[in-house]
Amino acid sequence: MQFLIQACLSITLSHGSITQITILADESALTKSVGSSG
To answer: What is the pLDDT of residue 35?
Structure first.
């Protein structure tokens, strides 16, 4: 599975945050939740 580097650079999360990403059978990705600490 490949991600666009622009998509990765646009996401910033604090250490200790919990993020859920589901990778589907057709190689697409679904972000279920993006957490932030504090």
So the answer is: 74
- pTM for the whole structure: 0.43
User: For the chain, how many structural domains are there in total?
Assistant: 1
Find the domain containing 16 and state its range. 5-34
Q: Hey, what long-range contacts does 13-19 have (CB within 8 A, 24 or more apart)?
A: 14/38
Instruction: Identify the weakest region by mean pLDDT among 1-5, 10-14, 18-22.
Output: 1-5
Between CA 38 and CA 2 the distance in angstroms is 31
Cα dihedral 37→28→9→11 (10° resolution): -20
